[in-house]
Amino acid sequence: MRRPLLFATLLLAVPVAVAVAQTSPPITVSVHPKVVPNTAGTPAHPQGVHLSVRIGIEIPNSYEPPLLNEIDLWFPREGVFNGDQYPVCSVSTLDRDGPAGCPKGSIMGSGGGVARADTTLSHPKITVVNGGQHEVFFYTVLNNPARVQEPVPGIVTKLSGAWGYKLHVVIPRNLQIVAGVPLVLQSLTFSAGRGDWLATTSCPRDRQWDWKAIAIFNNGQELFPRGAVGCRP
Q1: Whole-angstrom Cα distance, residue 11 to residue 191?
Q2: pTM (2 decimals)?
Q3: C-alpha span between 30 and 13 (Å, rounded)
Q4: 59/86 Cα distance (integer angstroms)
Q5: How far is the C-alpha of 162 from the C-alpha of 64, rounded, in Å?
Q6: Cα–Cα distance between 31 and 230 in angstroms, integer?
Q7: Which of 6, 103, 130, 195 would be 87's cystine partner, CB 3.0–4.6 Å?
């Protein structure tokens, strides 16, 4: 039975800016998504979508930048995540062989980013991998200031009421500090979608898909971005 999830809702958001004042660094997050198509399907005929996203994170140079610890994302009910309908790659396979060892149909997308490592830049590469009904892996590889390969799991929990699901992601310590150097993410781009792995089933009356999130940093700072993207029935 297909379960509602708009995993891509984070990606579906209109451009968003979030800033925190007082003594915390005024972090600004901008999200620029593209969804093809943005016309919703129906419960009987879900519409598969392909998603591409650009995310920017800005912290003034005068502040000591905090590191991102974890992210929680809440998704609307209008959607389908068919992780249980596609080939699955396990964390043990990713640890041993990377995405190259995964079943062919389990690779769902790719991306990359820019992070500041002291005075130099690091360029992490990301592969989006299907982990089944309750999990998605973001397999991350970076080479500066040292080589790190890590499958970052996203845990999907079914909800009831106003929200369909929550996605919980914890950033591994060895992707926060590499060779003793903190990595501060500046930008991220990625694209994901295969068949109806991600799909929509309806568009609300207000023609908006809503989402919300919490980003928690290692200095105790929390950001609460939220937004919506227009849809067509």
Answers
A1: 9
A2: 0.85
A3: 10
A4: 39
A5: 37
A6: 15
A7: 103
Q: Quote the CA–CA distance of 82 and 153 in Å, as a whole number.
A: 17
Contact assessment for residue 77 and residue 222, using Cβ atoms and an 8 Å cutoff = no
Separation CA 117–CA 181 (nearest Å) = 6
Beta bridge partners of 211: 227
80-102 confidence digits (pLDDT tens): 889 999 999 999 999 999 999 99
Nearest to 109 by CA among 151, 87, 86, 139: 139
Q: What span, in angstroms and rounded, lies between the C-alpha atoms of 222 and 139?
A: 25
- Give the tens place of pLDDT for each residue, 16-57: 444 444 467 888 877 777 778 999 999 999 999 987 778 788
CB 108 within 8 A of CB 193: yes
pLDDT value at residue 23: 65
Cα–Cα distance between 113 and 130 in angstroms, integer?
Answer: 20
Specify whether the CB–CB gap between 176 and 182 falls below 8 A: yes
Residue partners of 186: CB distance under 8 A and separation at least 6: 56, 57, 58, 113, 114, 115, 116
